[in-house]
Request: fold
Amino acid sequence: MRTLCSSTLIGEFFVIGFAGLVAMKEPDLATSTVWLVCGIAMLLCLLLCGMVTRPGGVALGWALQIALIASGVVVPIMYFLGAVFAALWWASVHFGRKVDEAKAAFAARSQSASSTADAA
Reply:
């Protein structure tokens, strides 16, 4: 799960950075405010890469997805991109857990097969 979720978060890191460039063109927004918000979101993406498998990591990822969709208020294309990344996040979590379960089952079978072979 960690690899899939981290890949999604790294993609979001770049999308947030590019959205910040677009948001800078808004005359009502201060450049420092745009980069403060984008910088925090980008840092959160990087930190979540290491926290995905810890308790609360996936929930924080969902909060980031909601914030990414909500950023469509400032940059309208982010409604679409946020929804795309939310779907990718769901797929990463869902299929990542299935892969982790399959790996654990394979390791358990390999362990039991090697222990029965050692006993013979």
Notes: The chain has a mean pLDDT of 92.
